[in-house]
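Sequence in, structure out.
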Amino acid sequence: MFDKATIASIAKGVWKRAGYKGFFKGCFINLFGITPFIGLKLSLFDYLNSFWGVARDHKLFDIINITNGALATIVAGSCTYPSELLKRVWQLRGIDETVPNYTNLRVCCKDIYSKQGLKGFFNGMLAANMKVVPANALLFLFNERIKKWWGVQSK
């Protein structure tokens, strides 16, 4: 497929096969997945922080923030994972021989559902969470730490 696995060779291959549109495969689907993911994640984190009501000077503040960030990410990721899977399938169609070249998303969803059922829309979620959850938990921790150092007040 690609002679050399460099960014330039891959970009050239994408340009030859699909033109400029090839660089935006899955972008539309991603917008429908990432927007609710971020909204849910931030809302759940704020809800959990207000539920526990722990002050920033509490000795367990960091552990509670990491835990709240991880829980918020797991719930938000679980709710929006099917859109992530569809985005990946849509990006790989026509490039990876193991992925059918679907004509539209409806056909793609019907195929996944008919072959694997509802469970098929959650394939790979555990691996995705193993990557995303620690990163987001630390992101929330550092965000709250920086707010604490700069003296930003919570509402």
